[in-house]
Amino acid sequence: MIYWLGAIGSTLFVLVFLADGWTRPGYSPVRHPVSALALGPRGWIQTSNFLVCGAAITIGALGVTFAGQSYLLGPMLAVFGLGLVASGVFPMDPMRGYPPGTPDGDPAAHTSRHKLHDYAGMVVFLALPAAAAIGAFVMPGVTWKSISAFMAIGLMIGFGTFGTAWENDSPKVGLFQRAVIIPGWFWVTAVFLDFAYR
User: Fold this and answer.
1) Residues 2-99+110-196, CATH architecture
2) In the predicted model, is pLDDT for residue 70 greater than 90?
3) CA–CA separation, 89 vs 68, rounded Å?
4) What confidence tens digit (pLDDT) does each residue in 40-52 have?
5) What is the reported pLDDT for 67?
6) How far is residue 86's CA from residue 99's CA, in Å, rounded to a whole number?
7) What per-residue confidence (pLDDT) applies to 146?
8) CA pair distance 93, 115, nearest whole angstrom
9) Digit-coded pLDDT (tens) for 148-181
10) C-beta of residue 181 within 8 angstroms of C-beta of residue 14
11) Is-contact 158 121, C-beta < 8 A?
């Protein structure tokens, strides 16, 4: 059951931000990052998404840890989950046209809350490729090892691309982020399901 919590949390996170992003007035999934969904009148949806799904992933990661087959993969997945929780506790600042009415650009100075959100994001975006890299060594079979290695490399490149797009205020920053989050989170789902069916 504990692995299913992790799998559901990882999958639900993606489904919620996709549905909310496509139906949110004034929000552009192509331009705006997922974290911006935690702002505005409907911000509680994404905040809850961060908190609930991050906690579910963390609990699932404890199951992986106590399975005794890897003393690195489970803790790294737990760090990933806790980073998501922290992202919900410390939302980003309004900027770049969202929520509607916000100036189209960055504020002159960021709040401490936003800085903590950035740190939480760094944890998430570093822990996930690290977990995939560990998976390349500890997951069973050539297929799993190959997929995990490919995912680790792809996530590092993808998150780097997203970071550059964010710094340059690319009009497609949301699209770049989603192109990395979706396969990365589904890799996490697949890992939990693999443990569930062993």
Assistant:
1) Up-down Bundle (1.20)
2) no
3) 31
4) 999 999 999 999 9
5) 84
6) 21
7) 98
8) 9
9) 999 999 999 999 999 999 999 999 999 999 999 9
10) yes
11) no
Nearest to 78 by CA among 63, 90, 88: 63
Please list, in sequence order, all residues whose beta carbon lies within 8 angstroms of the beta carbon of residue 114, skipping any fewer than 6 positions away.
90, 91, 92, 93
- Gap between the Cα atoms of 76 and 188, Å rounded: 11
The CA–CA distances, whole Å, from 40 to 6, 62, 71, 136 equal 28, 34, 40, 40
Amino acid residing at 166: W
Instruction: Round to the nearest angstrom and report the end-to-end CA distance of the chain.
Output: 12
- In the numeric block, the tokens 């297929």 are attached to 143
Cβ proximity of 57 and 41 under 8 Å: no
Residue 139 neighbours by CB distance under 10 Å: 23
Contact indicator for 84, 98 with CB cutoff of 8 Å: no
Residues whose CB falls within 8 Å of the CB of residue 160, separated by 6 or more in sequence, listed in order: none
Average pLDDT, the chain: 96
pLDDT at 177: 98
DSSP states of 11-61 = HHHHHHHHHHHHHSTT--TTTS-GGGGGSSTTHHHHHHHHHHHHHHHHHHH
Coil vs helix vs strand at 110: coil
Domain-by-domain residue ranges, the chain? 2-99+110-196
pLDDT at 1: 84
